[in-house]
Design brief:
Helix content: under 10%
Strand content: over 45%
Oligomer: single chain
Structural class: mainly beta
């Protein structure tokens, strides 16, 4: 199983980035996929998730500036990040979760991609 996150980098405030999380080895279209962020010394924070039915949920950070999407044909998860601010600087992780039963849960994390927003 692999979740390969990419697309991070250095961007100026107000700019945009499109990350990608390419997966392999999972039944991607059955998984709830999500993006998290984590700062140094901080806990991972849910940014957004998208279900197999394409229903989305957004956390409190990057509200209105982060659009999560998925391409089941490419087994890939995306966010479009717009109007970036220096406080959006973090490592961004993708996660895939499938709950088959109360006792059988598949849960995988990608390796993270650094997003740095300069002022």
């Amino acid at each position: 199983v692999q979740l390969q996150a990419s697309g991070g980098g250095l961007v100026q405030a107000g700019g945009s980035l499109r990350l990608a999380c390419v997966t392999s080895g999972i039944e991607f279209d059955r998984y709830v996929m999500a993006w998290y962020r984590q700062g140094l010394g901080q806990e991972r924070e849910l940014v957004a998730s998208i279900g197999p039915d394409f229903k989305t949920y957004y956390g409190s950070s990057l509200t209105g500036r982060f659009t999560i999407s998925r391409d089941n044909g490419l087994n890939t998860l995306y966010p479009q990040m717009n109007s970036l601010k220096p406080e959006d600087t973090d490592v961004y992780y993708c996660r895939g979760t499938l709950v088959r039963s109360l006792t059988e849960v598949s849960d995988y994390w990608g390796q993270g991609t650094q997003v740095t927003v300069s002022s």
